[in-house]
Amino acid sequence: MAGRFGVLLRDARRRAGLTQEGLAARAGVGVRTIRRLETGGGTDPRVGTVTLLADALGITPQERADLLAAADGRQPDEPVEAPPEDTVETPVVPAPSLVIVPEEVTEAADHLATIIATRLRREEELRRVHDPFPLPVRWRIAADLADHWDNICRVPHGVTAAPLDLSGEIGDIADIYRGIPSRKLVMLGRAGAGKTVLTLRFALDALAVRNRGGVVPVIFTIGSWDPTTTPFRTWLVETLQRDHPGLSAEAPGGSTLAAVLVDTGYILPILDGFDEIAEGLHRAALEALNSLSGPLFLTSRFDEYERAVTNVHTLTSAAVVELTDLGVDDLAGYLPRTARRVTPGGTATAWDPVLAALRDPEAPAANLATVLKTPLMVGLARTVYSDSRDRDPASLLDTDRFPTAQALEEHLLDTFVPTVWEAGDVRQRWDLEQVRHWLGFLADDLDRRETGDLEWWRMGGSLTRWSRVLLVTASTWLTTALVIWFVLSPLNSLSSGLPFRWPVVLVDGLASGAVIAVPFGLLYSFLVVRKAGSLEPTRVRVRLFDRRARRPRLRRRIAVRFAAGVAGGVLAAVAVTLVGVFVRALSPDLVVIDDLGHLLRLILVDVTVFELAFGPVCGGLLALLTLLQVPANLTTATSPADLLAANRSTVLRVVGLFAPVLAIAIGLGSFGAAAALESITGPSFHLVRSFRVSALLGLTAGLVTAFAYVITFTAWGQWLVFTRLRLPLLRKLPWAVTAFLDDAYRRGVLRQSGAVYQFRHARLQQHLAKAYRAQL
């Protein structure tokens, strides 16, 4: 009961030697909330708040249990008064019940919740949210942009709902949300006001009190959604599968686990960045969100959301709050505790003169006071000045150097990257100017593509469609030529005893590369660029004898893959025949065939031989690959680097397994087909019944097919061509691209959103992109 809870809380706070203000700062809970809880006023405490307080107090497990029990208890003789007939104070509406779903779906939800909690705690650590304590982000009700209270409170027709008290601080956010019967909340704030950190805190608090089989809060960066082309549900499912490939596994009924989780209400979407949706799409996005009946949590900058509401309507049944600015008292409680003491044993820090100037109406600190109203700028100022011995925050008061608030913001943004990269790291690998250039390139590339998601499979820069096709074709051409030059030709010379002549080998490699690369380039243009835009990371693994994975409709998929493989093998047979004709036509050792009919007959024999060799082999290999593919684990991709590593491993397993099989099968198949047809039609144009020739053909076909497949049809191959090789050659990125991205993430320049990176804030991305373009 509330009285007993207040006594236990007050006793624990006093034993810890904390004031109410000190406990509020440590727990991230409002002082007013703690005062209310200790005096027994207001409603009973919520579980999320109790958990934060218990963590901050460091009490024993038994004391924690007593505190939670007191929070849930009621007086036996406590009267329960019926509300007035025309008014409902805070109607209690249970969370939407979930339909009965298979146990494996519930297990997937529980596993997903564990992964997300681990990832978000890591994000908070890297953002230093609790170092030394969370900034006191507060909010107020934005009633003009909210729906009717009757809709928010979900009261019956004819009943009037009273406004809810939704004010609070960062530690109250989950409790505030649970007190909204519609379970719809919009959090507004200007750039850098703390919206993203609030979403982290909300998700973690919701996960802390989640029971098995409960709803899973998932943060989605909504700026990547195009509501005019993709329904909201489809976008949610696709994003879940991108960030958690294991959710692409089929669930009972034929749908994917991701789709079932969304459809059954297991996912609570936390939509961060409504303002980042492309210009002109806010109205369509709001209309789409208005059609939803389920819960959601949405963040946006104030102006963009206000314009959307003005043009359409408020978000149905959604309460709206607006983040407020930080005050001087908030800065005085936070900044000195992040800095070193000026003198040993003293309490003064380098921030004291700055804080005194901020309180003095006569001091020239108006610009700085304006800048330090948002958590973003306070965090940058803390990093630049509290974490550095060489910088004095008093310089921020220099109006000659910083005549405007914008000049101060640009200074903090510009100094942030050098500060985090020069923070005494003896393992520093890169020059600071190079780091600026590389980060600027990434920021500029994101700006050009109008996105904030740094996806490794789309990091090739703002290339046009035909530029990508040309690069893929050229890469396939080069790899094929390299195989001819350094594998086939030397082995052929050694096995046959013929001299190795570079002019002939050079012509053979270039001609073969051209004939192989052009068809693959055309296929890439049609199947990838025109249809999908870019290749997505694979969501499967290759496992031998794995019977545990559920794979419905496997026989049908095997049949379709086998047919596709046979068709591809027939096309490959035609291409290989053309290679032979083309190479022989350009060879210095050309043997002229005067009889055109005889020439056509030989070409037909070649096509038939290679169709018999390639068709069944390619079909069988694709069918076998389908049989060995199993869904990825939920733990496959917990970070962008993990997703890249998983894709690399899958591609290499496929190549390592099937390249030798393809080489042997084509070698034996071509020998058998050549022997069978030679007795009927005579010898082919360039293939004879010889184990040596067949072995060389099989080896070459296996290697060339493997390289062409990786480059043309895998996301990892695209990463190698467009990013891993091309960008370092152009000096746009370092050779150790993944190590650089991970370093930027650890230093707080980048953040992680599912399986992609993003810049810490859109303002930082814009600043770096602007600086990069200024250098061009």
TrEMBL record:
What is the organism of origin for this protein?
Amycolatopsis japonica
Q: Where is the HTH cro/C1-type domain?
A: 9-64
Q: Does the keyword tRNA-binding apply?
A: no
Per UniProt, which keywords does this protein have?
Membrane, Transmembrane, Transmembrane helix
At the top level, the lineage of the source is Bacteria
Q: Which residues form a coiled coil?
A: none
Pfam families hit by this protein: HTH_31
CDD domains attached to this UniProt entry: HTH_XRE
Q: Provide the NACHT domain boundaries.
A: 183-277
Protein name according to UniProt: Conserved putative membrane protein
This entry's Gene Ontology molecular function terms read:
DNA binding
| TM stretches of this protein | 469-488, 500-529, 558-583, 603-630, 651-676, 696-722
